[in-house]
Amino acid sequence: MNTRAQIRWLPDGHRLHLHDGPIDLIVEAFGAAVEVETAYRAACERFTTVLDELCSELAFLRTALSGVSQSESREDGFHPRGAVAQRMTAATLPYAAQHFITPMAAVAGAVADEILTTMTTAAQLARAYVNDGGDIALHLTAGEKFVVGMVEHVPMQRPDRPSLFGTSTLEFAQPVRGIATSGWRGRSFSRGIADAVTVLADRAATADAAATIIANAVDLPGHPRILRVPARDLAPDSDLGKIPVTQAVAELTAVEINEALTSGVTTAESLLQQKLIHAAALCLQGETRVVGSVREVAQIATSSRGGSLVHA
Amino acid sequence: MPKGLTRAAPKKDAPKAVTKSAADDAIRCDACPVLCYIKPGRTGSCDRYGNHEGKLVRLDPHVVLDRAVERGESVVPFLERSRDWDGTLVSHGETFVTAIGAGTTYPDYKPAPFIISSQVEGVDMVTVVTEGIFSYCGVKVKIDTDRHLGAECSAVRAQGEVVGHVTTSEYGSQMLSLGGVRHLTGGSRHEGTATCETLLDLCNGNAVDLKIDGGASVVVQAGKPPVVDGVQEERMRVGCGSATIGMFAKQWFGKVDEVVVVDDHITGVLSEHQAGKLLGVRETGIKLKGRRSTPGRYFQVAEPGTSWGGTDVDDPLTILGKFNSKKAWPGLRLLMVSTTGEQHAYFELDDDLRPHEKELPPHLRESVARIKGNCEPALCTVLFMGGAGGSLRAGVTENPVKLTHSVRDALTRVTCGGSPVYVWPGGGITFMADVTRMPRNAFGYVPTPALVAPIEFTLKLADYAALGGYIENVRPLSSILRSRAGSEPPARDQFVHDAKGPRHITARPDNPWPLAAEKDVPNTRKKK
Lengths: 312, 528
Known about the structure:
The complex is a heterodimer. By secondary structure, chain A is an alpha+beta fold.
């Protein structure tokens, strides 16, 4: 067991906080006490090696898959060893042909999926979630549901707006088991200008990759009042290399917001058609567009306010 | 301000090896196997370590203060707890969210980072939690010692830079005033940096070496004895020389003919003192140097120093003149003792009325021991003093002055890292707080240079609304710390982003609970 990883209860005594390097997971399982304990133990055991596994093939995971088709990748030596790395690669490959993308685009979601799968394999749980910095893997059984709160992104918080602006109920019968959010204000770099793009998908890793792609597409290329900086100037070892990433966005006109969101919606609808996602909410400077017909976004759609998954 | 660098902890907390990349100013962090290269002013992928002016610094996560019986930091380790797992769900105690690590929205046109409500005895209480950047701040240091540390107004130096000055002497203590805006930002860059580091270390409970111009070197650490010129101070004086006479006159009466309590401030003489007179102590013909204040009380018997009673006296007889031959007598017994009992000497007069030192008789040893026993341990105490300026107040309300009025009217309680504060009368919200009552490392800094200190304002929700607070931004405590009361958690409780999850520490039992109703607030600092 590595000595870095910190595993502890959050103050409520119900949720586990698993921390190692840049990975922070909040884990909670529901069910019989003995099953919950078994699941937590399995999660902890699995967690302690995740970061070392990822770092052992970090160079590959930071390499663009662009231009590599799914079939090619399996034959030319692009074979990630680790289970999480395989999840990352699988989630990002669908975009490789048409977009610049590296497996890192799905790292948070893939870790969440891996830990959740470990837990549900080890124990019989009524429901469970693994929240990796806002990218969330969900487990539901018949009759169970999750209520997801939506708040405005804290940096955008303004006194004249409530912070919690919508909720979404995810039930067993629905296919959604992964939620992810991407945007230029988040922890990872974005090429686009979306404040937040939240995606509901089969898995957290697939949601993570899709959110990245859609957030990149919410953009106004060449706009003079968007500050972009090569990623490597900010973080020398970024997987995005020289690619400019968004650092500041001026207040946009309604026409510009519409144009940028429309670009993102086009991409999101394409992903919806390919069945890569179930739904997406795109937020830019107070405007929100929702893509997807499933019931879970109904409540999001009734709200005109921008926001992201709870980032308290 | 660079993102994420508002919570730079002292460098000591991040002893990570750091290598500079030749190509740029990035440093490599080896806190974990990701081995991020971090540019100046940026954080690594974890958001926990950052590059501050070429140094790797650790950024603390948000600190949550729990009301619990025990003192000290405690995170609950998973493995330890699971050993005794009984399948039951532990109940959730009361929690107060401190501002430590909350971050700030400087320059504060936005609401404070956390505005939290919780139910206290049926009243919705609001705590506005922020970290203030204090350019106008400093510390008041009280050093329990009789030793002369330096003349009033002398410069106090750290790292060779002037960081403050010696101010008044108080009862058994020497006060220093360190920091303040003139040293922080009014002098050279190095002076500002040295001042900021000194304040940060003192506030975070670390030891600091101070040198007083024309005076002593002192090691100061909050809650610890001062070390003056390499010697650790043990005791704080029982009283001034005169007071000591008053306290112990009865115990000396009949056992010794004369007692001199040597004190740089007021040296006391038993036979002349009112206490001695009342007991009928015979005149001894003793002659003190220095200036007589009132009977039996003498000023300036010697120069200030670090020896007997804070004088420069090593041989106590040097403060005495010749005994008056008309009143003194051979065999007269004389005890000389310092205000802490640390130094003492016993003399008897010979036939020529000259004092000769003799071994202290057993029946006097007890009184000397009692002086020592009545002294309190000498300590350094450090009070942080800062002013919550207009912009910080704007993080609480759209009408900053209303917050000031609310504090004045005692509707709003101010705390600093959960610790009680004294708010100065007069304008503004200028407060002082004992740094030893705060969680360790509660303070940070920004390169301005200025200190980052936690500050919390607690008031009734209705009062908060009345003063123009950001009611829309009030979040229930449960959204910061989830508790699970019913079978189905409310929507707000779901998926709270806890990437920088609350750190859990227990509140000090001697601090009033910030959310307690006024009647519950213990106003005592209980002696151990």
